[in-house]
Specification:
single chain, elongated, cytoplasm, about 240 residues, chromosome partition, cell cycle, alpha+beta, Arc Repressor Mutant, subunit A, cell division
């Protein structure tokens, strides 16, 4: 049984904060127990490419940053060893070991690690994503999505006020495609609020909403359309 006075290593500790003295000889943090491998899980060192390749395989399917502790649990390795592997992969992708720089990079974001497109190629990636979105969404859907992205969370009535048309059908389409989602209700009117999703960021090639171009100052203030919730807006086409 684990001693109640033993402190587990924090999951959000940055790799650079792990001083050599903080790690036990076996790669575990002080007081940290080795993760239990899953039943019948193979030794990752015996897989093709070894532990590095196994770590890459997991990172490639991650849709959000994964803490090193969780990666260690999945791979059945000490957390310290996984942190070293993450550093090695990040350096390799940057071309620091004699190889060519890659079009992607491994970096720490928040409390975890994830593979992202390299910043140098953001225009190429953005063009590819935008071309794909334009081919699949109507102009009305793109305009509605833009209003939601820049003024979220918003109600359908508020979006209709900005666009001057009823957007109920368009919002249903965007919701069905996973680009927007419900985000509670407006305290004043009780109308449903909508926000963009993580899938929206992925399709736009963004890691956060802070990376959206500075278009928001040119949109009308949402407060001006508070009275439109529940009112029918019928002008124009959607």
């Amino acid at each position: 049984m684990t001693d109640d006075t033993t402190a587990a290593a924090p999951a959000d500790l940055a790799p650079d904060d792990l001083a050599p003295d903080d790690l036990a000889p076996d790669g575990l943090g002080e007081g940290e127990l080795p993760p239990e491998p899953e039943a019948d899980a193979p030794d990752v060192h015996d897989l093709p490419g070894g532990a590095l390749a196994a770590l890459e395989a997991v990172l490639m399917v991650a849709d959000e940053p994964i803490p090193a502790v969780r990666l260690a649990t999945v791979l059945g390795l000490p957390t310290g060893e996984v942190v070293d592997l993450l550093r090695t992969l990040a350096e390799e992708y940057r071309g620091e070991h004699g190889g060519r720089p890659r079009g992607f990079e491994l970096r720490q974001a928040g409390e975890g690690w994830r593979i992202y497109s390299a910043p140098a190629f953001h225009q190429v990636v953005g063009q590819f994503v935008l071309d794909g979105q334009t081919a699949r969404l109507t102009q009305a859907a793109l305009e509605t999505l833009a209003v939601i992205a820049y003024r979220q969370p918003v109600t359908r009535g508020q979006v209709s006020g900005v666009r001057g048309v009823n957007v109920d059908g368009v919002v249903r389409t965007l919701t069905a495609r996973g680009l927007v989602a419900e985000a509670g209700t407006d305290p004043g009117s009780g109308a449903l609020l909508y926000r963009t999703t993580g899938y929206f960021l992925e399709r736009m090639g963004l890691t956060s909403l802070d990376e959206l171009p500075p278009l928001a100052p040119y949109l009308p203030e949402i407060d001006a359309f508070d009275g439109l919730d529940g009112a029918a807006v019928t002008t124009g086409d959607v």
